[in-house]
């Protein structure tokens, strides 16, 4: 198999794919595929419950938080959060650190007053504004930030301190990449297709006392209280994606959990950033303390070499290194399923390419 640096859907652990293949026709002797099971039958309920238990173990999710397996990916949450947490006429604070913050802000603006409490727009999203500079509003329904900017390559390695105001964060691209104190959050959401599983699924972790606040106009399907009350099965859930997510949670536990995977992730990103910083050909402009472990965007100083770089990478089985269309350049995503061997292969290629063409 090739080395997959795709930003999303991203690489999945090979062991998980093999297990899914082995069980595709007949899961655990049930006689049918998971994709064919009734979501209300005992076999799927067992799969769903095990997945939630494993996710709770991995992230040490407190009992006063509900775990929801929803549809609509990360983007649906941009509307679902305000529909549930922003009262009519209310105000919410958002931190703008890049492309995905902007998406969240634009959607939230349809539902109420949005205060941009801090933004790094003016320096081209090269840093995360320190909290001392944030201008939070006096009566905010919640504070929202994007814990990892998948396109701009920024990541919070700290949790904002917002007192009693509910803290909401988009962890689509960095959930499960290292330990996280979930108790500090009112709500965490994540589109699945990076560290959780295949696309089509979103995981929401929400404090139970925040359920039941949805606006009257909120569609039933988007009301967190309805989802929680039905065990995320108000309608037919994306069963196969949920099952694969469960296998990935198991795989993560077998790797030693989040402390162990964080050590691997720390080494992976360091190797790549060190290579970029030591080179005269590759550049990453994000301030060192705010660099993402999961998504490493970089440019070639001479962008006429971009095509040759990508072609050479593909020949070596280093796939999906082309940067997002909004930014150009390159991007290597280093999700949990991207091995250290993959990063070694990438770094070796980058060094060789610079020697020959730089
Ligand atoms: N938020 C972040 C940080 C993302 O990286 C993405 C997608 O890459 C999204 C939200 C949107 O997720 P989806 O495509 O599942 O709607």
From TrEMBL:
SUPFAM superfamilies: PLP-dependent transferases (SSF53383). The modification N6-(pyridoxal phosphate)lysine is found at residue 194. The keyword Amino-acid biosynthesis applies. Pyridoxal 5'-phosphate binds at residues 74-75, 100, 150, 170, 193, 235-236. Catalyzes the reversible conversion of 3-phosphohydroxypyruvate to phosphoserine and of 3-hydroxy-2-oxo-4-phosphonooxybutanoate to phosphohydroxythreonine. It comes from the Bacteria. This is Phosphoserine aminotransferase. GO terms for molecular function: O-phospho-L-serine:2-oxoglutarate aminotransferase activity; pyridoxal phosphate binding. Keywords: Amino-acid biosynthesis, Aminotransferase, Cytoplasm, Pyridoxal phosphate, Pyridoxine biosynthesis, Serine biosynthesis, Transferase. It catalyses: 4-(phosphooxy)-L-threonine + 2-oxoglutarate = (R)-3-hydroxy-2-oxo-4-phosphooxybutanoate + L-glutamate; O-phospho-L-serine + 2-oxoglutarate = 3-phosphooxypyruvate + L-glutamate. Belongs to the class-V pyridoxal-phosphate-dependent aminotransferase family. SerC subfamily. Residues 3-346 form the Aminotransferase class V domain. L-glutamate binds at residue 40. Homodimer. Its EC number is 2.6.1.52. One of its GO terms (cellular component) is cytoplasm. It is an enzyme of class 2 (transferase). Its main location: cytoplasm. CDD domains: PSAT_like (cd00611). One of its GO terms (biological process) is pyridoxine biosynthetic process. Binds 1 pyridoxal phosphate per subunit. PANTHER family: PHOSPHOSERINE AMINOTRANSFERASE. It is found in: Cytoplasm. Pfam families: Aminotran_5 (PF00266). Pathway: Amino-acid biosynthesis; L-serine biosynthesis; L-serine from 3-phospho-D-glycerate: step 2/3; Cofactor biosynthesis; pyridoxine 5'-phosphate biosynthesis; pyridoxine 5'-phosphate from D-erythrose 4-phosphate: step 3/5.
């Amino acid at each position: 198999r090739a080395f997959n640096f795709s930003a999303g859907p991203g690489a999945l652990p090979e062991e998980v794919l093999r297990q899914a293949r082995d069980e595709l026709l007949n899961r655990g002797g049930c006689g049918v595929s998971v994709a064919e099971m009734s979501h209300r039958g005992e076999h799927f309920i067992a799969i769903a419950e095990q997945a939630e238990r494993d996710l709770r173990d991995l992230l040490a999710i407190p009992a006063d938080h509900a775990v929801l397996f929803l549809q609509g990916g990360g983007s649906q949450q941009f509307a679902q959060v305000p529909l549930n947490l922003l009262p009519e006429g209310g105000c919410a604070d958002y931190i703008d650190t890049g492309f995905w913050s902007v998406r969240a802000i634009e959607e939230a603006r349809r539902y109420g007053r949005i205060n941009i409490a801090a933004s790094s727009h003016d320096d081209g999203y090269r840093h995360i504004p320190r909290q001392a500079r944030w201008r939070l509003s006096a009566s905010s329904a919640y504070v929202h930030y994007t814990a990892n900017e998948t396109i701009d390559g920024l990541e919070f390695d700290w949790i904002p301190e917002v007192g009693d105001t509910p803290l909401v964060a988009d962890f689509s691209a960095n959930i499960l990449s290292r330990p996280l104190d979930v108790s500090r959050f009112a709500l965490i959401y994540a589109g699945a297709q990076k560290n959780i599983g295949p696309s089509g699924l979103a995981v929401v972790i929400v404090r139970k006392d925040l359920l039941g606040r949805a606006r009257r106009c909120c569609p039933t399907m988007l009301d967190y209280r309805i989802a929680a009350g039905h065990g995320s099965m108000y309608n037919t859930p994306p069963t196969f994606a949920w099952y694969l997510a469960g296998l990935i949670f198991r795989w993560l536990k077998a790797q030693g959990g989040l402390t162990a995977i964080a050590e691997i992730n720390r080494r992976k990103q360091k190797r790549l950033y060190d290579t970029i910083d030591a080179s005269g050909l590759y550049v990453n402009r994000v301030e060192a303390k705010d660099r993402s472990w999961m998504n490493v965007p970089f440019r070639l100083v001479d962008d006429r070499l971009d095509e040759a770089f990508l072609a050479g990478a593909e020949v070596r089985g280093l796939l999906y290194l082309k940067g997002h269309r909004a930014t150009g350049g390159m991007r290597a995503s280093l999700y949990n399923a991207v091995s250290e061997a993959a990063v070694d292969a990438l770094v070796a290629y980058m060094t060789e390419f610079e020697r020959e063409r730089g």
